[in-house]
Amino acid sequence: MTDQLRVGDVAVTPLPGGGYGACQISEITGEHVTLHALDWSGPRPPELAELHDAGLVQLDHHSWTDRIAQISVFPQNHPMPPDLEWIGNLPVPPGVPAGGTSFSGWQSPVGDMARQRRWERLPEPVRAAYRALRPPEPVTADLGAGPVTLTTSLGHLDLRSGDIAPPASGPVDWSVLDRLPRCTEITWSGPDRGLTAALARHPLVSGVNWLDAPPLVDLSETSVLSLRAAGDELREIRLPDGAHHLNLGPTGSRCTVRAADRGRWLRLALFLVTPSTLAPSGLDGVRQVSLTGAGVLSAATVAGLHEMHTLRLQWTGPPGRLDDPAALAGLPGVRLLEMVDAYGMDADLPAHLPGLRHLDIHGLRGSVAKELRARLRRTEVGLSLAGAKSDRWLAANMDNPFRDWADDDPKAGAAACKAFAAALRAVDRLPATRTPADAEPILRTLVEAINQIDEKWGIVDTLRREEAGDAFVTLATRAGVPTPTADDWFDKWRDF
Length: 496
Description:
25 strands; alpha/beta; single chain; eleven-stranded parallel β-sheet; 9 helices; five-stranded antiparallel β-sheet
């Protein structure tokens, strides 16, 4: 599809949370496509003529100043969304730079426009307090556990642990939010205790992470756009109009979600999924779904989501298998299937998806990759493959947390895998009466090896640093080292 695009082409796409917007191409190179949002939004898709005089979207929300909503996309990394509809060609408005300096996905410009529109709907005192140009000031707060010092620049208020966490029962003084003019996200655990009422009074807060959630999470009177929730007791979630992300962790039983248009405008992500997990009820209109779980997922999880057009499957451990693939045959609307670390998949999967138009896989057996290319060569299904690995490599490294580093640099990835495997063997040889002191030199050797790998190949970015930290803590736990100690060691020893 991208080889048919031209500068000036206009696409219509749903906006996060509801309605429609439009974007236009300003540049096409051999590697990327640059798009900008057009200053138009409405409850229905526009005709091309309605966009003829649409200007540009100027972003000044939150800390943005003097920037238009423009993004460059690498099509090889970002398959085109199925709900991006190209409707014609118009002259590019004056003042649009040919190429953007930021990179993201196809719908990012209209997403920026939606965030700008929301910002403009906030009360002016809220916006003025956020923008006030002054050095951060200390804020003394007491949520029940004694006074603590915060800062007016705090954007994420995490109330799960540490000095700021309130006691397990008793009143919570939510007035602290009145003195945090830049707080846009809250993390909370346990019963409500006044949280939803506080959210209703503070429309700047758009993100909530709610762990050990109560049976009912009712955010319908708040301005929350993104919710991540989990809890054995959680049974029902009520979202406000405009919400566009629901990340749902394990719940004790199937959860019911009440959202606008049966979830039509939501992106639904399910985490820690098992083969017995069922998607929440009430979201049969949802269009974009992702499942993340350990070695085995099941297509039965999403069997009832008949309006879905995009499905993403990500495995966090071996074997990377999908059970009940025949359940996908009942989802004729799925146009885009994305898979990460699908090492247990075979080449028959596309046959279960009659409407599939693009298959994007990162992490696959080399033998299956070859068969897939042959199977899809003369079909309408586009195929993007990366990270294919030989059976021999996977036999040696399937359980190694650094196995995917080889996708960026084979030598660096091989060295990281070798270092972790050596550390694992050394930990497993420790006596049953081992102490943290026994494990310390083994763990330090691992971090020093990663330091050397990064110094030589420069492979450790933010994502790799997090992966290295997770692998280190997992190994330290296996060695009997408490997590706080492991975290301290990792931060002390690492150079990346």
